[in-house]
Please model this.
Amino acid sequence: MILPIIMAGGTGSRLWPLSRSMYPKQFLNIVGENTMIQDTVHRLGNMDISNPMVICNQEHRFLVAEQLHSIGKCGDIILEPVGRNTAPAIALAAIRATEKGEDPLLLVLAADHVIKEVQHFETAVHGAIGLAEKGNLVTFGIVPDAPETGYGYIERGDVCIGNNIGVDNFKVEKFVEKPDLKTAQEYLETGKYYWNSGMFLFKASRYLEELEKYNPEILKVCRESMESADKDLDFIRIEESIFATCPSDSIDYAVMEKTDRAVVIPLDAQWSDIGSWSAILDVSETDENGNCFSGDVISHDSKNCLVLGEDRLISVLGLEDIIVIDTKDALLVADKNQVQNVKHIVDELKSSNREEWKIHREVYRPWGKYDSIDVGSRYQVKRITVKPGAKLSVQKHHHRAEHWVVVTGTASVTNGDNTFLVTENESTYIPIGQIHALENPGKVPLELIEVQTGSYLGEDDIVRLEDNYGRA
Model:
């Protein structure tokens, strides 16, 4: 049995403004109808696998849970309190996988990759099973089609066990850092180098053995972290005070570059790690002018452009090699050849203490979402959507009052000592300091307009007294 380990801890800053810290690219449907993490699970559909184990940070736990539940996959979700790179993250998963005396094959995947030739991917994974069961640590090297300087590379060595497993396989000669253009061209010409995909297959016990041999401190801290972890429903909450002492290291540095059992299987499956907006254009369907448009877009005499919009009309005229990404609160217009520098915009937003790098105007919560449609001096207006059967926390505010007007559906409102129903075109007022709660008891989404007034309207002015989602 294969246990997929899905690494979902990235922030996707190079795909700003669509991808943001609190809602990064792996949870977006940038390519296709499903989100990227859902596509990662779906491409395993023809394999004999168990429900995936996902590793993410605390802030994304409800996004992961909801998106997995919506496709019928309900595995463990390990919550990292702080990032410590891939070697410790995979160690936590391997320890968890062996807690019941089992020793599954771990298929380590990123949540934000695109693989168009799924059958080629399946063939490579099936071919890797025999190698992994023999104690090898298998990685999948992407057959390069260009002298890419944004990836690390794997140099292959001698053939490992021949072609009797159905795929080419080689001992790993060495891992190399991201090269300059001249070196990348030389790598391409030799035919002996592959892009480092960050995907692996190995037995859980073998990874722990190799980690103990080469980086015992990482394994020690990870074992202590799992022993003290709080297991709550699907979530495994790692103790921060212990895990924060763990050395930060990638699986490449910690294990794969040191072990003598590393094997690489070449993978030619139209793979992309979707690291930039130009990469999105490369994997998207385009029109006869090389354009990819999503949303309400009118174009004239434009070529090789990516234009993504949400709510309003976008018109482009006489553009070439331009990226336009329009969201409710931010607009990006960039030369296609400069999109790797989007991170500089994100850094400037951070240094200016602006919120646009972190959250969207529309914010998702485990109970639904809200959209801040207007903000002014001492007031804020939100459109709130509550899923059927969901309930917001029992809470109060020290600095603001709230006025709720139901637009569609029916709300069950707790306002002080009273609980009552509020239906369409009805309203209720919550004074400052009043204990209150909001619930959707119906079968359809509840939508309401919330008008906040007061001296301070920040989200941290919420005192949760009870909560169905462990946030109290």
